[in-house]
Amino acid sequence: MKIIDVHTHPVFFGKGKTKPEVDQLVAYSKSLGIEKMVCLGDVLVHGPCPSAKELRAINEQTRQLLAWYPKFFIGFCYLNPTLGEKAIRGELDRCLAEGFQGIKLEIANNARDAVMTPLMRAAAAHDIPVLQHTWDTLGKPMRKTHSDPKDTCLLARRFPDVKIIMAHLYGFGLRGVLEAQDLPNLYIDTSSCLPFAGLIEYAVEKLGPERILYGSDIPIRELGQCIGRVTGSDIDESAKRKILYSNAHTFLNLA
Ligand SMILES: [Zn+2]
């Protein structure tokens, strides 16, 4: 089955950045049917709230991967909304000129914070998607910077013109799936955490297969296991093909 992986970190805490390592990752991925990977960058190498200079270095690393494998990697520009509009626009414009096709957000702030507004307006103006790290953090102090599905869904509601990927189905679980209903601009990815039986089936039942995108979160997770969550689930073949490939193909305008 053909696969597009919308959530990867080929370089992670500095590991995996040499050409032989990248060659190996691409060859192994292709052997599993993966045609393309969205590269989100080495997002935590400088801590949760990177400076403009640190962001630039991370995005430059992604640009190197795109230069080596332009048909395989798709770059998302990693940004820190707390740095303000000028810094956001500057780094985003630089990355878009290099062929990046989306924005990645991690844990610098919560998705419901006001600092998101200039970034989301820029995403809307350029018509590019935003991938937001999301986890079940309701009632936990970490929610200050780790967005809960309530926060990411609120973001999608506030900015209906921006396509948002709420990352980590296995991190936000059943409640996140329910929060994601009735938000046509919100997609979920299947990445992260340990798999458990029935969750893909539940997401397909509640959301339909069209807003579910396959993601792995490599190298934190193993590719074969992440693919198996979808291929081994009790959904029909056409839904599997949508989740693993055609939804992302449409979402990323790859036609
Ligand atoms: Zn990730």
UniProtKB/TrEMBL annotation:
Lineage: Bacteria, Pseudomonadati, Verrucomicrobiota, Opitutia, Puniceicoccales
Protein name as catalogued: Amidohydrolase
Keyword Lyase set for record: yes
Membrane-traversing stretches: none
Keyword vocabulary terms for this entry: Lyase
Domain Amidohydrolase-related: 55-254
Position of the signal peptide: none
Pfam families: Amidohydro_2
Gene Ontology molecular function terms on file: carboxy-lyase activity; hydrolase activity
Domain of life: Bacteria
